[in-house]
Automatic annotation (TrEMBL):
Gene Ontology CC annotations of this record: cytosol
GO BP field: cell wall organization
Protein name according to UniProt: Uncharacterized protein
PANTHER family: UDP-N-ACETYLENOLPYRUVOYLGLUCOSAMINE REDUCTASE
Any one GO MF annotation of this record: flavin adenine dinucleotide binding
Length: 181
């Protein structure tokens, strides 16, 4: 397990558990579990994921907002949504004044929506997202590109896989943002 340190390359407050891939682990290499504070800037997480070769968020490069905001709204871009990598969401339930953790299946993710958008009378959000745990595969290629517009942007035919770093750069350029800061 790895937590943030100045030399680790991991952002402050993010916890990375890649122990399923330890040499002495008896199971085949599993995913990397990454827990991220809700207030973390979304694109910083995407940049970390791409740089760490954790595919699953690269098409969401440049999406504005915090991890909490993007996950709550289950924002989609080029056919990819954060719900594809979310394992669980830890919240503060304002109606019960208690912590509540939602497993992926309890989040009721849909296109542009989730259980986490529930509001209280008066319009205030019921759930404050404290942190989100993602489960990433490891690798440097995307899933097969299904979105025709994205395929054209990348100069490939639909169905091809491309390096996640190339996708991030292309998506950021398409959004009019710099690929590096």
């Amino acid at each position: 397990m790895q937590t943030a340190s100045p030399s680790s390359g991991v952002l402050a407050g993010i916890v990375v558990d890649d122990s399923a891939c330890d040499v002495d682990d008896l199971s085949p290499c599993g995913g990397v579990r990454v827990t991220v504070p809700g207030e973390q800037r979304w694109d910083e997480l995407v940049e970390l994921a791409v740089g760490s070769e954790w595919p699953g968020l690269e098409l969401l490069s440049g999406v504005p907002g915090t991890v909490a905001e993007v996950v709550r709204a289950n924002v989609a871009a080029h056919g990819q949504e954060p719900s594809g990598t979310v394992a669980s969401v830890r919240t503060w339930d304002r109606s019960t004044d208690a912590q509540r953790t939602f497993a992926w299946g309890d989040c009721r993710f849909g296109p542009g929506t989730s259980q986490l958008q529930e509001t209280l009378p008066g319009g205030r959000g019921r759930y404050q997202i404290l942190d989100v745990t993602f489960l990433f595969k490891q690798g440097d290629l995307t899933a097969p590109v299904r979105d025709a517009q994205l395929a054209a942007l990348l100069g490939v035919r639909p169905g091809h896989r491309v390096p996640i770093t190339a996708v991030r750069s292309a998506v950021l350029a398409d959004r009019g943002q710099e690929a590096t800061r």
